[in-house]
């Protein structure tokens, strides 16, 4: 029997070295696109998919993340005194019901598979989602909600998937699956973590949204280090297929930004700013002035 997906794991233990020096004291998940931290986008997407329990796998130096989701009584009192109801509503999007959020420490950076495994006791015997906040997806219907709907038909494991050019396969988990099909759900025959260009089984890359069965946790119990000397989530999901269980790729609808890279983060910033009615006019005027100048300088 398929069960409803109500728990999500957010692996947020990474050091974020690509964004030093900012990430020396600010967790990268707190870095903002316009005015909302990356983690807020991830939480909102989870909520929209029906998630009610949020499990953060953190590490040292991430306490700003815990504070971010706590109540802020002084700030609230001040906003109330000044009658700033809109800002109050914004503030409330960061609040969590008591007991809805849990923080688990990953003591050493041993890979994404290991980070997810750290949440095993809170997951228990239920299917669960994994959201990587670095992957921000702009979509009319949020990506995880699209996946939950598809999962209700398929069961098993499901990973978000997107086509990538051959020279990019070494940055992703790659599916052995038919990427040319019209159906958004694609059955997966195998998975490889970060294959070299020319050696990938297809052009379908795993993007940071997963719906996983608790069997994956059992596999991770005895998982060995894979690509890059880390315990790979990709390998544990691939093991499901070897054991005869169903894994689907889901080609989501929406635009994905790789906010783990500076270029992707900047693209997301520009795109999200343009999508804001209060910023659109001024910001697009600025861009149309500046882009020809940048082109001329090339
Ligand atoms: C992780 C996963 C990889 C996946 C990617 C999506 O890699 O290991 O399979 O394709 O996220 O963003 P990372 O980007 O953490 O190196």
CATH superfamily: Spore Coat Polysaccharide Biosynthesis Protein SpsA, Chain A
Named once each, the bound ligands are:
1-O-phosphono-alpha-D-glucopyranose
Largest sheet: 8 strands, mixed
Count the domains: 1
For the record, what CATH class applies? Answer: Alpha Beta
Number of E-state strands: 14
* SSE pattern, N- to C-terminal: EEEHEHHHEHHEEHEEEEEHHEEHH
Give a summary of the structure in a few sentences.
Helices cover 36% and strands 21% of the residues. It has 298 residues and is α/β, with parallel strands linked by helices.
Question: Could you please describe the fold and organization of this structure?
Answer:
It is built from eleven helices and 14 strands. It is 36% helix and 21% strand. It has helices spanning 38-48, 63-68, 73-81, 85-92, 112-117, 120-123, 143-154, 215-221, 233-242, 262-274, 277-297; strands at 7-11, 32-33, 36-37, 53-58, 101-105, 128-131, 135-138, 157-163, 173-176, 185-187, 190-193, 204-212, 247-251, 255-258. With 298 residues, the protein is an alpha/beta fold. It has one domain: Spore Coat Polysaccharide Biosynthesis Protein SpsA, Chain A (Alpha-Beta Complex). The strands form four sheets. It has an eight-stranded mixed sheet with strand order 5-4-1-6-12-8-13-10. A two-stranded antiparallel ribbon has the order 2-3. The structure holds 1-O-phosphono-alpha-D-glucopyranose.
Write the layout of secondary structure elements.
Blueprint: E1 7-11, E2 32-33, E3 36-37, H1 38-48, E4 53-58, H2 63-68, H3 73-81, H4 85-92, E5 101-105, H5 112-117, H6 120-123, E6 128-131, E7 135-138, H7 143-154, E8 157-163, E9 173-176, E10 185-187, E11 190-193, E12 204-212, H8 215-221, H9 233-242, E13 247-251, E14 255-258, H10 262-274, H11 277-297
Parallel strand pairs: 1-4, 1-6, 4-5, 8-13
Antiparallel strand pairs: 2-3, 6-12, 7-14, 8-12, 9-11, 10-13
Helix pairs in contact: 8-9
The protein binds 1-O-phosphono-alpha-D-glucopyranose (G1P).
């Amino acid at each position: 029997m398929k069960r409803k997906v109500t728990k999500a794991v957010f692996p947020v233990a990474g050091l974020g070295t690509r964004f030093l020096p900012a990430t020396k004291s600010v967790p990268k998940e707190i870095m903002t696109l316009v005015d909302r931290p990356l983690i807020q986008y991830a939480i909102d997407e989870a909520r929209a998919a029906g998630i009610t329990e949020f499990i953060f796998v953190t590490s040292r130096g991430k306490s700003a993340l815990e504070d971010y989701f706590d109540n802020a009584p002084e700030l609230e009192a001040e906003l109330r005194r000044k009658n700033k109801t809109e800002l109050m509503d914004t503030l409330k999007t960061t609040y969590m019901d008591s007991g809805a959020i849990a923080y688990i420490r990953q003591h050493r950076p041993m890979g994404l598979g290991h980070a997810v495994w750290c949440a095993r006791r809170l997951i228990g015997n239920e299917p669960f989602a994994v959201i990587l906040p670095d992957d921000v997806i702009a979509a009319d219907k949020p990506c995880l909600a699209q996946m939950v709907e598809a999962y209700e038909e398929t069961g098993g494991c499901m990973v978000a998937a997107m086509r990538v050019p051959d020279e990019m396969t070494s940055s992703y988990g790659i599916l052995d699956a038919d990427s040319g099909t019209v159906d958004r759900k694609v059955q997966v025959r195998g998975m490889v973590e970060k294959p070299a260009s020319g050696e990938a089984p297809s052009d379908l890359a795993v993007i940071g949204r997963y719906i996983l069965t608790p069997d994956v946790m059992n596999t991770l119990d005895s998982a060995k280090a894979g690509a890059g000397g880390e315990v790979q989530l990709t390998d544990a999901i691939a093991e499901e297929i070897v054991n005869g269980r169903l894994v689907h790729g889901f080609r989501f609808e929406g635009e994905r930004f790789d906010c783990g890279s500076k270029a992707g983060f900047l693209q997301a910033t520009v795109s999200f700013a343009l999508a804001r009615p209060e910023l659109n006019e001024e910001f697009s005027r600025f861009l149309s002035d500046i882009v020809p100048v940048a082109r001329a300088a090339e």
